[in-house]
Amino acid sequence: METLGGFPFEALEYDQRGEPTSTALDALQAHVQSTGTTDLLMIAHGFRNNAGEARDLYRRFLQNFSAHITREELAPALASRSYATAGVFWPSKAFSEGPSRSEGEAQHLEDREAAALDDARAELLVLRNDIVTAGQRDTVDRALALLDALEASTDTQDEFVALLLSLVGTSADADPTEGFEEVTAQRGADLFAKLAAPIILPTVRRDGDGGVMMLDSGGASGSGSSDGAPLFIGGALKSIAGRVGQVLNLTTWYMMKNRSGSVGTNGVAAAVRALKARHPALRVHLIGHSLGGRCMAACAKALCADPRVQPDSLSLLQAAFSHDGLSQDNGHGDRGFFREVIEHGIVRGPFISTFSYQDTIVGKAYAISSRLAGDNVKAVGDKDDQYGGIGRNGTQRTSESTTQVVGSVGMRYSYPPRVVNNLDGSGGRIKDHGDVTNHEVTYAVACAVAET
To answer: Rounded CA gap, 299 and 205, in Å?
Structure first.
């Protein structure tokens, strides 16, 4: 095995169906057997990481995690253990953030309108060549052929959007809390119309308003920075072509959600079962960032099936799935997609989940879903919205949960068992979606590992 971040490390690679593409699990099994490993950290990256970025994420996380093992308050539990680590690598695609409102100054709008069609064509080619399966490329080609006619015909807009959303596919085990059925039930032209006005995503939570920053027509503008300026999504370009990118983002977002779930359900869960079968005393710690959080939640859900296998801890770091994903009822009669993880008490030790109001990536993804799935015209994607992300808002409508702040290194965490321990990093501990390898977050995870 190679060494990464100071630990023995194995790369577990999977295709989009969650099938392993190497024999790395065999090597990991042999290492655990020969070294007497007591603890295995399995980490999954998100939808904004390619393989190189994922490896760097793992390296930084593990380096900071290793610094906590010998701390005075954790050494009695952690210092004598023997560790191995495994990084999950799955074919993900970055969620395009596009230009911010501040980049859309009036003198540049004309040029941007002219370039919008070229930008849309380029993004469709990336979708065709780098993301979809070979069997789906004809669908993207048909969408490309319609691109020049979008402005002239609402029927063409309907067909174009239907083609894109068909790439997501259907599932008998679809998540009813994510809004996909509501989106696909609408005409494509209506979805484009909903994207004509900007979506306002606040980056500062205000007491007394349910977490939503209300702005009038003269409100602040900006790109979502640490000073609390809200993020304006879309709305600057008036052409239909200028809104294609948001529809492509939504399509890719749903595709990657399904893909991460398949990797967790089929690939990672099978690896955990195999490891626990040969090494019953091995502590397995599941850690997932972004859609890697969804991957690990899907793994935990799959482990609920007989014969049950219990991971020893589960750490969701700015996870990208519905904030109602663990609820008994999302307020509209639907169970959370991962509810079984709670009901089966499948996590033997601590279950932690970080969130931050500064996570504008999860916020943006769910703000777009909320605008298109519902009738929201103001700030969206927050805790009282039907469509919001756990990495931005924490768990919602989940009675089996507690919330505490992400504290400084050295503080004593209390992680009650059989509940989700929400850790609020808003206000500086978690500055953005990717800020999950810092000393404070890795210390919170080390504290969870120490309780196993």
So the answer is: 32
Q: Which residues pair with 355 in a beta bridge?
A: 424
**252 shares a domain with 293:** no
Residue 183 and residue 181: Cα distance in Å, rounded?
5
Averaged over 66-75, what is the pLDDT? 97
Helix axes 106-126, 241-262, angle to 10 degrees: 40
Average pLDDT estimate for 56-78 = 98
CA dist 351 and 448 (Å) reads: 8
| Residue with token string 């850690």 | 287
In a domain? residue 264 = yes
Q: Which residue matches tokens 């482990």?
A: 303
Q: How many other C-beta atoms lie within 10 A of the C-beta of residue 382?
A: 26
CA atoms in the 13 A half-sphere facing the CB of 391: 31
Q: What angle do CA 191, 197, 201 make, to 5 degrees?
A: 100
Which percentage of the chain shows pLDDT scores above 70? Answer: 87
Q: Is residue 205 part of a domain?
A: no
Tokens of 133: 């399966």
Element holding 160 (H helix, E strand): helix 154-166
Helix (H) or strand (E) holding 283: strand 283-289
Q: Token pair of 309, please?
A: 């296998």
Q: Given 3-state DSSP classes, what are the helix, strand and coil percentages for the chain, each rounded to the nearest 5?
A: 45, 15, 45
> What is d(CA 170, CA 168) in angstroms, rounded to the nearest whole number?
7
* CA 369 distance to own-chain centroid: 14
- Where residue 183 falls (left for φ over 0; alpha for ψ -120 to 50; beta otherwise) is alpha
User: What CA–CA distance (Å, rounded) separates 353 from 93?
Assistant: 23
Query: How many independent structural domains does the chain possess?
Result: 2
My answer on whether 32 and 110 are in the same domain is no
CA dist 440 and 320 (Å) reads: 20
**Largest distance between two CA atoms of the chain:** 70
Q: What is the pLDDT of residues 275-318, one digit of tens each?
A: 999 999 999 999 999 999 999 999 999 999 999 999 999 999 99
* CB 267 within 8 Å of CB 229: no
- State which residues form the domain around 271: 2-93+259-450
Q: Give the model's confidence band at 219: pLDDT under 50 very low, under 70 low, under 90 confident, else very high.
A: very low
Helix (H, G, I), strand (E, B) or coil at 158: helix
Tokens 């009695």, residue?
Answer: 76
Structure tokens at 27: 């090597």
Q: 393: helix, coil or strand?
A: helix
Q: What is the pLDDT of residue 409?
A: 97
Rounded CA-CA distance 73/84 in Å is 22
| Of 10-14, 249-253, 289-293, 339-343, the least confident | 249-253
